[in-house]
Amino acid sequence: MRNQFQISALFILVISIVLASCSSPATEDDSYLIPIPESTISAFQEDQSYPINNKLEAVIAARHYIAEQSSRLVLSQDDLIVRSAEKTNLIDVHKFLSWKTNNLEDVPVWFVIFDASWQGISLAGDISPLITGCIYVYLNVKDPGHSGLSSRDDCVHQ
């Protein structure tokens, strides 16, 4: 009886090890997709957080940048869903957004795309109806310069 118990325990242990080795742990490449606590976003220190070294740092910086734009957008940080975060350059971001590329520096940037719902605020203080689409944020890799934000209801993913 005791021998049968040991064989059963050994079998369960082997199966557990095999199953554990088959599951893939979160990697840097997908860790930026996990929900980020509001406390992390609000604790972001722009002057101490550059250079931006990876996708997770880029998403945190982008969410902080969006929060700073509260005079232009009304949205909940909880409603932001990360779709992508890629290291690219400013010219390619402008081309992707169909913006002019004349006289641009070829600056390395992180380009982060969020699905979101928001309301815009006009210069007169009027609030638009709820819009659902994408918010695009680009951030200079090395310093807070060359950062920007765009929002569109015709969501295009990279």
List SSEs in N-to-C order: HHHHEEHEEE
**Which overall shape is indicated by the principal axes computed on the Cα atoms?**
globular
Low-confidence stretches: 5-27
Helix content: 25-40%
Beta-strand residue fraction: 15-25%
Structural class computed from helices and strand pairing:
alpha+beta
Number of helices: 5
Distance between the termini: 61 Å
Calculate Rg over CA atoms.
22 Å
Number of domains: 1
How does the major sheet shape up?
Answer: 5 strands, antiparallel
Mean pLDDT: 75
According to DSSP, the number of beta strands is 5
What do these coordinates show?
The protein has 158 residues and is of the alpha+beta class. The chain has one domain (36-152). The chain contains five helices and five strands. Strand 4 and strand 5 (148-152) form a beta hairpin. Residues 5-27 have low confidence and may be disordered.
Index terms:
alpha+beta, five-stranded antiparallel β-sheet, 32% helix
How do the helices and strands line up, and which of them pair or pack?
Blueprint: H1 2-22, H2 28-31, H3 38-42, H4 55-68, E1 73-74, E2 81-89, H5 90-96, E3 108-120, E4 131-140, E5 148-152
What is this structure, in a nutshell?
The chain is built from five helices and five strands. The protein is of the alpha+beta class and 158 residues long.
